[in-house]
Design brief:
Blueprint: E1 15-18, E2 25-27, H1 29-35, H2 40-51, H3 54-60, H4 66-76, H5 81-89, E3 95-97, H6 101-110, E4 114-119, H7 123-129, E5 141-144, H8 145-148, H9 155-165, E6 172-176, H10 179-187, E7 191-194, H11 198-207
Parallel strand pairs: 1-4, 1-6, 4-5, 6-7
Antiparallel strand pairs: 2-3
Length: 213
């Protein structure tokens, strides 16, 4: 889908909405498996056949839980039974907060912008990870896909920002690392910004009249 380029008028932006995974935190599943002592072959196999699968998306949608994943993947891949059970028993190491995240959000709030999070994230994993994020108390609110039983780019999850928090979507800058999610945001009137790295984001935000420095 080709999005029409919107004019970058800083006066239109009142709110900044962030994706979380690989924007505010590092989804370090491969390093996590290495930390757990998995062989290179197991890391490659389970990355492709467990993490990067439609089943994981169903966990983001809240229709599969961790116990379902353990049962499903150990039945599919009994040769990796030990690794799969170990992986799901230690999900605290799956993510790592980027050092810029909390100061960036704090700065945006100081500049007068509302800041919200909109994330595809499994229910149980979010319950374990999110209380540890130092940037979370700096935000005005957040929506997690798992408990809502819907994921980006479903238009309903973007509109939850409007109905739950009173956010005007046409005044939102939406930052995500996946173009499909940006297309979904644009379809409901938000201003999409592709995240490719923090230094690039700092420069992109300047074009919107937002100076993080």
């Amino acid at each position: 889908m080709n999005r029409p380029e919107k004019k970058k008028d800083p006066r239109t932006i009142q709110t900044v909405v962030f994706d979380v995974g690989d924007v505010l935190i590092n989804f370090r599943y491969r390093d996590h498996m290495k930390d757990l002592g998995f062989s290179p072959e197991a890391v490659d196999f389970l990355s492709e056949n467990m993490v990067l699968t439609e089943y994981w998306h169903e966990m983001d949608m809240g229709i599969r839980m961790e116990k379902d994943a353990v049962e499903h993947f150990t039945q599919l891949f009994p040769q990796y039974d030990r690794e799969i059970r170990t992986f799901w028993a230690h999900t605290e190491g799956l993510v790592e907060e980027y050092p810029y995240s909390a100061p960036m959000i704090r700065r945006l709030r100081e500049l007068g912008y509302g800041v919200y999070l909109l994330s595809n994230y499994p229910t149980e994993t979010a319950a374990r990870h999110w209380p540890t994020f130092t940037f979370l108390p700096e935000t005005d609110g957040y929506i997690i896909s798992g408990p809502e039983k819907m994921t980006k780019p479903d238009p309903r999850i973007y509109r939850l920002l409007e109905s739950r928090f009173g956010v005007n979507l046409s005044s939102c800058l939406f930052i995500d690392d996946r173009t499909v999610n940006l297309d979904g945001a644009a379809a409901v009137g938000m201003h999409p910004l592709l995240f490719t790295g923090y230094p690039e984001l700092v420069q992109e935000l300047k074009e919107w009249g937002i100076d993080l420095e």
